[in-house]
Amino acid sequence: ALKISAFYREMRDMLTVKQMVAAFPRAYLTYVNQDFGTSKGFQIEFDLRRTGGSRINANYTLQFAEGSGSNAASGANLAASGQPNLRVTQPLDYDQRHSFVLNYDYRFGKDKDYKGPQLKRKSGNPIQLLEDVGFNLQFLVGSGTPYTRWDIAVARGSNQRSNIVGSINGNSKPWTFRANLRIDKNVQLTWGKKDSDEKKHANLNIYLQVLNLFNNRNVLGVYNFTGDADDDGYLQSAQAQSTIQSLNSPQGFVDQYTINMQNPDNFGRPRVIRIGLQLDF
Questions:
Q1: Rounded mean pLDDT of 194-202?
Q2: 267: which DSSP letter?
Q3: Which of 81, 98, 123, 246 has the highest local Cβ count within 10 Å?
Q4: Beta-carbon contacts of residue 168 (< 8 Å; ≥ 6 apart)
Q5: Is the confidence at residue 251, as pLDDT, over 80?
Q6: Using 50, 70 and 90 to split pLDDT, how confident is the model at 85?
Q7: 146-160, 213-227, 266-280, range with the lowest pLDDT
Q8: How many CA atoms lie within 13 Å of 262's alpha carbon, on the beta-carbon side?
């Protein structure tokens, strides 16, 4: 089955920071319900019903998310500067233009519906080696979310400000790719008196789950000057050279600053392996 749909969402009265200029005894900053935004696009979904043990589901989404602020703090710098509280639309922080999801699921089945390797024996039915075993493979591909480019490198932890290059959220982070795998087996459990209507049934699912199967290094955050996830450009900048050379241990500062730049939040989760049990009764 092929399904095509369009969507349009409108957001109003979201929190933002505003300066109250006529307040007594002096101006102050406060939160107001003033930001707005829209999210629009279309989605294409393909679903192949289970055939011969296989089921395939594919999804593509094209999205445009724009608004006057991505969160309550988006307008804080503008309000604190004393400038007018301009309400202009720009790409929101979560504006992901392209998103692809592909799911492939396979079930070996059991009894007459079994579709897998068997072990023959001299008497009786063959042993179904993969009875009630299945696996699910998921691929997720997405374009990078936007970020704002700066014109100078700013040292981490400093109060120095930088000018914007281009427009707010006018640049994009790299594309991301993840693959997830889950292998599981269902075990039917029965207990109670034999040949009794009071016998109870339950299903035990034993699974192995691998997130980020290929251990891809996905970039989720970057430094505004370089657009790089592990280098903010400060150590190589002209304004940093005189500061570094005036220190007692320039090399020690460089080493410690380099370590400090390795922010784990800038990267997606590495490969994770889980083994678990799920009991349904």
A1: 74
A2: B
A3: 98
A4: 90, 91, 148
A5: yes
A6: low
A7: 146-160
A8: 5
Report, in angstroms and rounded to the nearest whole number, the Rg of the chain calculated over CA atoms: 28
Contact 181, 249 (CB under 8 A): no
Q: Are 265 and 207 in contact (CB under 8 A)?
A: no
For residues 176 and 145, the answer to whether their CB atoms sit within 8 Å is no
pLDDT tens across 18-29, in order? 888 878 888 888
Q: Encode burial over 15-31: b for 16+ CB neighbours within 10 A, e otherwise.
A: ebbbbeeeeeeeeeeee
Alpha helices in the chain (DSSP H): 76-80, 238-245, 250-261
Report the distance separating Cα 117 and Cα 75, nearest Å.
62
Residue 186 belongs to what H/E stretch?
Answer: strand 176-191
Rounded CA-CA distance 191/177 in Å is 45
pLDDT the model gives residue 106: 97
* Residue-level pLDDT at 10: 95
Picking from 155, 118, 153, the residue whose alpha carbon sits closest to that of residue 133 is: 118
What value does the mean pLDDT of the chain take?
90
The owner of tokens 């007594």 is: 24
